[in-house]
Write a structure and sequence with these properties.
Blueprint: H1 2-11, H2 15-21, H3 29-38, H4 49-64, H5 71-77, H6 83-97
Helix pairs in contact: 2-3, 4-6
GO molecular function, one term: phosphatidylserine binding
InterPro entries: Annexin_sf (IPR037104)
GO cellular component, one term: plasma membrane
Length: 106
Amino acid sequence: MAVRKIYRELFSCSVDEDVASSPALQEPLKKMLLGLVSSYRYAGEHVDMDVAKLEVAQLSEAIREKRLHGDEVARIISSARSKPQLRATFQQYKDDQGTDIVELSR
């Protein structure tokens, strides 16, 4: 929230507006960045492994069906999930699939 406030003070618009209107950003990157900068991210340490397993199943299906640009992938990656929750999801993906999800982007 503090970064968003300072950005508005410095540039007289919101970071959301700049990301949404940037011609330099292409889909799906623009959609993911917009989700990241416009959502409130839970800062706590609580991890829900049921959520992690559900989202791993959704990510696995999207990857298998080559729907990486779909709304489901963007929602999971740019959701309001905490960093510990995202780490748990990515670790669960690695445990289930035997591949680090980061390796898929290379």
